[in-house]
C-alpha cells in the first residue's frame, strides 16, 4: 500500500481547522496525529501525480501551506526515520515492484541466490510477497558478508548483539525492542551468525537467536616452586634449562622452578666460573651456556 502523508501549516487569516479537515475528507484523506496531519492511500490503479493534484486542488484558496511525504508498506517502516519515496508519475504496483527489485539487488550483494524470487516478482507479486517473507531467515547461514564496512550497520549489529542472551530472543522480540524492520534485524543476525557471535536454535515452534559467550580468559597455572636440596643441585637445574639461543632471567626462574634466591645465587656462581654467559640486549639480559 502506497501512503501519502500531508503536513499542513494553517494561518489565522485562512480557513479554520474544521474547514480544512472537511476539504481533505472530500478527497479521501484521513486526519492523523503525530508528525503528519493527514494520511491518504494510493490504490494500485491510481497514479501518484493525480493524487498530488487532488491535494493541491482541495487546499487551493484555503490559505494553507502544505508538504507531502510518500511511503510504501514494503519499506523499512520500523526505522526511526521515515523513508521517502521519490514523487514520480507511476502506479502503486509499479512503485512496489521497483522497490522490491532494489531489495533483491541488496540480497544479491550479500551473496544470496535470488533468481527464483526475481522470476516470481515479474510473474506473481502476491506469491513473491509470501515466499520472500521468510527467505532471509532460511538463508542466514549462507550469507557471505562477515564484516560490514558501513558504520550505521555496525551500530545496528552492536545494538542487536547487546539484546541477545543465552536464553535466546525471536526476531519479533528484537524488532519490538529496537524498532528496526524485520529485514534489517534479519540481515544483522546473518552478519552476527557469520562472525560467530550468534547461533540460531528452534524452541518449539519458535526460532530463537542466542548469544555465543566469549571464551573464558585463559587461567595461568600457578608456578610450582621446588627448592633445591644443595647449591650443586640448584646450579645443575639452571644449566639444564639454558638454551644455545639464550633465555631470559624470567624463563630461567620458571623453567628451573627454583626459589628466586636460589636461582639468583646459582646464576651468579655459574657466571663467575664461566659456565654461564650473560648478554644484555636493551633492558633485557639473556643467559647462554658457555
Question: In terms of topology, how is this protein built?
Answer:
Layout: E1 2-9, H1 17-25, E2 30-31, E3 38-42, H2 48-59, E4 65-72, H3 92-109, H4 115-123, H5 125-133, H6 135-138, H7 151-163, H8 171-178, H9 182-194, E5 198-203, E6 206-211, H10 231-241, E7 247-248, H11 249-256, H12 260-272, E8 276-281, E9 284-289
Antiparallel strand pairs: 1-3, 1-4, 2-3, 5-6, 7-9, 8-9
Helix pairs in contact: 3-4, 4-5, 7-9, 10-11, 10-12
Overview of the molecule:
The structure is a single chain. The protein has 290 residues and is of the alpha+beta class. The protein folds into three domains: 2-87, 2-Layer Sandwich (Alpha-Beta Plaits), CATH 3.30.70; 155-216, Orthogonal Bundle (Arc Repressor Mutant, subunit A); 231-289, Arc Repressor Mutant, subunit A (Orthogonal Bundle), CATH 1.10.10.10. It has helices at residues 17-25, 48-59, 92-109, 115-123, 125-133, 135-138, 151-163, 171-178, 182-194, 231-241, 249-256, 260-272; strands at residues 2-9, 30-31, 38-42, 65-72, 198-203, 206-211, 247-248, 276-281, 284-289. Helix 7 (151-163) crosses helix 9, helix 10 (231-241) crosses helix 11 and helix 10 crosses helix 12 (260-272). Mean pLDDT is 78; it is low at 74-90 and 145-150.
Amino acid at each position: 500500500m502506497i501512503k501519502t502523508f500531508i503536513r499542513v501549516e494553517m494561518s489565522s487569516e485562512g480557513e479554520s481547522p474544521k474547514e480544512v479537515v472537511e476539504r481533505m475528507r472530500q478527497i479521501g484523506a484521513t486526519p492523523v496525529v503525530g508528525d503528519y496531519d493527514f494520511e491518504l492511500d494510493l490504490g494500485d490503479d491510481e497514479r501518484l501525480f493525480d493524487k498530488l493534484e487532488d491535494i493541491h486542488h482541495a487546499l487551493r484558496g484555503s490559505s494553507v501551506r502544505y508538504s507531502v511525504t510518500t511511503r510504501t508498506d514494503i519499506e523499512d517502516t520500523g526505522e526511526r526515520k521515515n523513508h521517502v519515496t521519490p514523487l514520480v508519475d507511476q502506479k502503486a504496483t509499479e512503485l512496489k515492484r521497483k522497490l522490491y527489485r532494489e531489495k533483491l539487488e541488496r540480497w544479491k550483494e550479500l551473496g544470496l541466490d535470488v533468481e527464483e524470487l526475481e522470476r516470481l516478482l515479474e510473474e506473481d507479486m502476491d506469491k513473491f510477497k509470501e515466499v520472500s517473507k521468510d527467505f532471509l531467515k532460511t538463508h542466514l547461514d549462507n550469507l557471505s558478508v562477515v564484516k560490514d564496512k558501513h558504520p550505521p550497520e555496525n551500530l545496528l549489529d552492536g545494538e542487536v548483539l547487546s539484546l541477545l542472551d543465552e536464553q535466546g530472543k525471536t526476531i519479533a522480540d528484537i524488532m519490538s525492542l529496537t524498532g528496526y524492520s524485520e529485514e534489517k534485524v534479519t540481515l544483522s543476525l546473518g552478519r552476527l551468525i557469520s562472525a560467530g557471535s550468534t547461533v540460531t536454535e528452534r524452541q518449539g515452534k519458535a526460532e530463537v537467536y542466542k548469544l555465543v559467550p566469549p571464551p573464558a580468559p585463559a587461567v595461568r597455572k600457578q608456578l610450582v616452586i621446588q627448592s633445591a636440596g644443595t647449591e650443586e643441585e640448584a646450579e645443575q637445574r639452571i644449566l639444564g634449562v639454558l638454551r644455545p639461543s639464550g633465555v631470559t632471567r624470567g624463563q630461567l626462574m620458571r623453567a628451573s622452578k627454583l626459589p628466586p634466591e636460589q636461582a639468583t645465587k646459582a646464576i651468579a656462581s655459574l657466571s663467575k666460573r664461566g659456565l654461564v654467559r650473560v648478554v644484555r640486549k636493551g633492558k633485557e639480559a639473556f643467559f647462554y651456556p658457555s
